Amino acid sequence: MSQSERLVLATRYRLVSEIGQGANGTVWRGHDDLLDRAVAIKELRLPDDLSENDRVLFYRRTLREARAPAQLRADSIIEVYDVVIEAGRPWIVMELIEAPSLEELIERSGPLPPERVAHIGRRLLDALAIAHKAGIVHRDLKPSNVMLDGDRVVLTDFGLAFSDGSTSLTKTGHFMGSPAYVAPEVAAGRKATPQSDLWSLGATLYAALEGRPPFERENVIATLSALANESTPPMPNAGPLAPVVSGLLEKNPTRRLSHERAVDKLDRAIAGPRSARRRGAPDPRYRLLLVVALVSAIVASCGIGATALVVGMMRESPGPSPTGRQQPDATRSAPPAPAGDTTLVIRATGDTCKIFVAEPARTLQVLANETLPRGAVRQYDQPRLNVVVYDPSACDVWVKGEQQPPGKPGQRKSYTITKKS
């Protein structure tokens, strides 16, 4: 066991095992004996060539600047618990997140799809908005400092962060940050700003989309030269995110996308495909469904048997069976409806529970046309309903309090329901 592994910091933080090492320190899995919880502990190490005075300055900066992110409370920002000096160097105690970093995911899986990168970018913009509002500039945003815990995206390692009004304690001549992700103006010696964090975000998103940062070369000098002199390389995998990333990678910070514009462009990129589908021609199956519902309403108003007509037409409806079905639980639970005479209750047991619910009348009333999120429940008490369930294997359905038999993936089931008064 190494000397570090035997340490107990501030009489309470016990080092358990090493998680990983970086350029400026080691991250440990630790345990807070006082509060009995697992923690992550970052041990900061300095270059050997620093003078004693420079080391003192670095320790003071670390202690001072760690106080600022420790005040931030956001799901998208790592929570800092404590900073202590032990064995002649600073240690940052923080939330333990047992999940891969974005860098690890890129190395393992290669470029990520634009949809996932858009989600990551949106969450990181939220994190930067909170930090910048508090006067904190991160200065080292890169894939290894982004943790992906399921849908949660967490910005970590504020070790190089500083807040407004603080005096820089960085020694002149020592490059702080990661060359492949640092903004051009910072690489040229200017002070880091919120706009330089946005550049680093752009380089991080580029790496997630293309599998490598935009200006990384064989060494630091070549990387900084490319950063200063070369245009942003093409982004063949970026799709709708290309304008967002290229706007964030604008070399002139005054022309770079602002936080607000980046949010707007990213939201538009995310919503673009859905908006295009809404503006385009409706799906043939959807057109047929509307025709069926309209005919059913007319026939029902004339007193003709609507059930046979609706079911018969739906059996003839064209279109491929949906794919990628999520199988429901083998055991169907009791209906969530509080009353047994409720006309219709639908609960999503999978991710592909798509429904269409309409109330037949002289004017057709469409009550629902949506794919329900898993676990969602929809309840209807109208006396007459026309219903189509596109994937009954992913839905639980109760009609007037009676649970309907489960369907098969790709099957489409329709119901015409009349609740007697």
From TrEMBL:
Which UniProt key words apply to this protein? ATP-binding, Kinase, Membrane, Nucleotide-binding, Serine/threonine-protein kinase, Transferase, Transmembrane, Transmembrane helix
Q: Which CDD domains match?
A: STKc_PknB_like
Show the coiled coil region(s).
none
Name the segments for region: Disordered. 317-342, 400-421
Enzyme nomenclature, EC number = 2.7.11.1
Q: Where are the transmembrane segments?
A: 288-314
Q: Would you say which domain of life the source belongs to? A: Bacteria
GO MF annotation: an example: protein serine/threonine kinase activity
Name the UniProt record assigns to this protein? non-specific serine/threonine protein kinase
Give the source species. Answer: Actinomadura namibiensis
